[in-house]
Predict the 3D structure of the following.
Amino acid sequence: MPDPTRPLPQPRRRTLGMLRSLRLRAVLVVLLTALWPVFVLQVWQAQADQVDVGRTLLLVLPVALVLAWWLGWRMVRPVEKLRDQVLAKLDHGLVAGDLDLGRGDEFGELADAFNELLARLDERGRANERFAAEIAHEMKNPLAALRATGDSLSAGAQDAARAARLARVIHDSSRRLDQLVTEVLELAHAEATMVDEPREPFDLAQLVNGLLDSHAQDERWAGCRFDYAGPVAAPVVAVPQRIETALRNLLANAASFAGPAGTVRVRVEWGERVVVAVEDDGPGIADEHLPKLFDRFFTTRTGRGTGLGLTMVRAIAEAHGGQVEAQNIVPHGARFSLTLTPMHG
């Protein structure tokens, strides 16, 4: 909502004086354009035939002045109308894209462009509202668990077994809240700054192989095999830490579904576009879940994860002019394809 104490912006024309007015400048330009050839012609004729230049100008000037003022009004009026409609929206806190000049010319196209901008802003605002509601919903369960545990502890002494259970609830709920807040902040920061982050050259193949080695040594994925297929070197230009975050999330997701005896394969295609495909031989993805995989807080693993990892991957891909897609593999397994373009170093 707009701040009622904040004054609305005033048109520059009112504060900078009439000499800076677009209408006045348009009138002067039209007058000079209309009168200059007449003046030159009359001066030349005056030298030849002694024609009364002043009398001729008195006849031409009123017509030129009216024409110039009318053209200036036609040029400036749509801009003023557009300004008034925008200021009215600021006054009432509206962002709907319904600016209308009733014209099909360039000014009408300008209004359409503003409408598109307002529609995008409205969409982003609604998305932020949904995000805030989703965060509150996700925080509700661990907070409720902490409150219930606190009530139990305040009720009186607890035996050792019950105290241990309550301690575990406190630990799990606080860990869940910490993980949720951390990932929400990371996602919000990434979405706000990634487009402007400096790109730099690095070797994507080296990064992938390093991540595969670290995952192979991680106790969480003990027994899971990690394979690589692709070029020995794949020089690219991107934000290395963001690409690493995306690949870590995809590898962790694939390893969790492949299981301790499964296999995670990473295939890199390096050409006009760079594609990193992460595959697992797990159970695959249910058809009804495919459209929602990259939505915020969507997860099929109750009690594990926040459902923001794949959302982060999508944000990173889009910030690099690419995309991420998921599909099932026959006979079983899933493939996540991260496409980044342009990326060549």
